[in-house]
Amino acid sequence: MPEPTPETHVIDFRTAERLLDARDPRGAVKLLDSVISSHPGNTAARLLRARAYFASAQLRRAEGEFRHVLEREPDNAFAHFALGRTLVRAGRAGEALRYFRLAAALDPRPDFVAAARFGEVGG
Hints:
The protein is mainly α. It has seven helices and no strands. It folds into two domains: 1-58, no CATH class; 74-123, no CATH class. α2 (25-38) packs antiparallel against α3 and α6 (93-106) packs antiparallel against α7 (110-116). TPR repeats lie at residues 77-110.
């Protein structure tokens, strides 16, 4: 098999996006693994892989990838929100609220603000 090139990594990334949209998250992960092994600092690929892990209910892996993205991009509102959703799905809603609030503070989109529950008593 020929050595992957930067062009094949771009093709794999775009194909992984399409696979995720087509509800094939495991196929997306397979393509992204090689992209990330060649470009470990590529946060876009890691964010896409995190979304694919979430979609395939691999919540620990999704959490790890979202946290990895946030280490490099602490102002990434979507990554905070997605980490919060991952934690809720894993039964850790109390821990998730912090990430929802950070997401809403960074980007006051209605879905981020609703998840942050700013107006609730005790919230």
